[in-house]
Amino acid sequence: MKIPRQFLVKDSKENLHPCPACGFNTLEEICGSFEICRICGWENDPVQLFQLDYRGGANSSSMIEWQQELICDHPADQKAWGEWLRASDWRPINAVDVAKGPAMKERYVADALNAPSESVSC
Question: pTM for the complete prediction?
Answer without folding.
Answer: 0.71
